[in-house]
Here is the input.
Amino acid sequence: MAFFRKFIFWVRGLFSERPRRVEYVESDELPGELVSRNLYVAREDGELWSAGMVCPCGCGRRLEVMLLKDVKPRWDLSVDKSGLPSLHPSVWVAEGCRSHFWLRNGKIHWC
Here is the structure.
């Protein structure tokens, strides 16, 4: 069933996926409620702390990755001129839905 759900989301993404946009939060933590089409970035005094989003597979799980330079594991965030985010490396959910994807230029690319 999880495979079928991921397949449906993948097909929808080919034709109609609206790119994710960055929404900055001036805090050292993400908001309690996340909207599914945004990538939230917590920053404090110009320092990026973490990025979060709702899992793109449709399971509704909240995903959070660390952006701080001194922590491991950590991700790098880049935002292009249009405001479209990319994360490096890929995001892999080890438990539950087991999603594995790249966020590049605001779009989900499934592994």
